[in-house]
C-alpha cells in the first residue's frame, strides 16, 4: 500500500528534483519534449498513443485498508488506556504489543537505511516513532515491576513523537497522512505510561 511505501522511503526523496534529474522522470520529459525546438522547429512532429488503458477505480474494501486497521488500533489503545486510567493499572500485553510492533518496524527501517543500497530509504525519520530499542523494552514491560528509568524512557519516546511532528511541519520529511493516527495512538499510550509510572513512584515515597 501507499502507507507501507511512505514508511520505507526516507527524507532524501522529499526535495525538488534538479533539471538533470527531470531527465529521468518520464512525465516531465514528455511535457518538455512537446515544447522543445531545434533550430526553431519542434522536435516532436506528432504524438501517438500506443496503449490506452483507462484509469482503474480503487474498489478495495474499506476493511482491507490501512486506514481502517489504524483506526481500530486507535480505538483499542484508547479504550484500554482509559480503563487503565480509571483503575490506575497497566495492561502489560497492550504495552508489549505496541512496543514490539514499533520496535520491529524500527529494526526494518534501520536495516533499509544502513544495510541496503537503496538510496531512497536513507535518512528515514519514521525511525523516530518506530523506535528500534522498543523491541527490547517490550519484554521489560511484560513484568509487573519495571525499572525506574522506564519513566524517563517514556518521556523520551514522547519527545521523539514531538520531533517527528516538527520535521513534518517544516517538511524536512513528508510523512503519510495516516501517520497522524499512529502518532495519536502512541501519544495516548506514552502519556499514560508517564502518568502511571510517575504516580507509582510518588506513592512509594
Features:
205 residues, mainly alpha, two-stranded antiparallel ribbon, 7 helices, 2 strands
Could you give a quick summary of the protein structure above?
It is built from seven helices and two strands; from the N terminus they run H-H-E-E-H-H-H-H-H. It is mainly alpha-helical and 205 residues long.
Folded structure, characterized:
This protein is mainly α. The chain has one domain. Helices cover 56% and strands 2% of the residues. The chain contains 7 helices and 2 strands. It has a two-stranded antiparallel sheet with strand order 1-2. It is elongated and about 85 Å long. The mean pLDDT is 91.
Task: List the topology elements.
Elements: H1 2-8, H2 26-34, E1 37-38, E2 41-42, H3 66-87, H4 92-114, H5 134-140, H6 149-169, H7 179-204
Antiparallel strand pairs: 1-2
Amino acid at each position: 500500500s501507499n502507507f507501507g511505501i511512505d514508511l520505507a522511503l526516507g527524507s532524501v526523496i522529499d526535495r525538488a528534483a534538479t533539471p538533470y534529474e527531470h531527465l529521468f522522470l518520464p512525465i516531465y520529459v514528455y511535457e518538455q519534449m512537446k515544447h522543445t525546438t531545434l533550430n526553431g522547429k519542434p522536435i516532436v512532429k506528432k504524438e501517438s498513443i500506443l496503449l490506452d488503458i483507462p484509469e482503474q477505480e480503487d474498489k478495495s474494501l474499506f476493511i482491507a485498508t490501512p486506514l481502517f486497521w489504524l483506526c481500530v488500533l486507535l480505538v483499542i489503545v484508547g479504550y484500554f488506556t482509559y480503563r487503565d486510567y480509571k483503575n490506575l493499572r497497566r495492561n502489560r500485553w497492550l504495552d508489549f504489543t505496541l512496543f514490539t510492533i514499533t520496535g520491529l518496524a524500527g529494526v526494518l527501517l534501520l536495516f533499509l537505511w544502513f544495510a541496503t543500497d537503496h538510496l531512497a530509504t536513507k535518512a528515514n525519520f519514521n525511525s523516530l516513532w518506530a523506535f528500534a530499542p522498543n523491541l527490547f523494552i517490550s519484554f521489560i514491560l511484560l513484568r509487573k515491576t519495571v525499572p525506574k528509568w522506564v519513566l524517563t524512557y517514556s518521556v523520551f519516546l514522547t519527545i521523539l513523537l514531538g520531533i517527528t511532528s516538527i520535521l513534518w511541519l517544516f517538511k524536512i520529511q513528508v510523512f503519510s497522512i495516516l501517520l497522524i493516527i499512529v502518532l495519536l495512538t502512541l501519544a495516548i499510550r506514552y502519556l499514560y505510561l508517564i502518568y502511571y509510572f510517575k504516580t507509582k513512584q510518588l506513592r512509594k515515597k
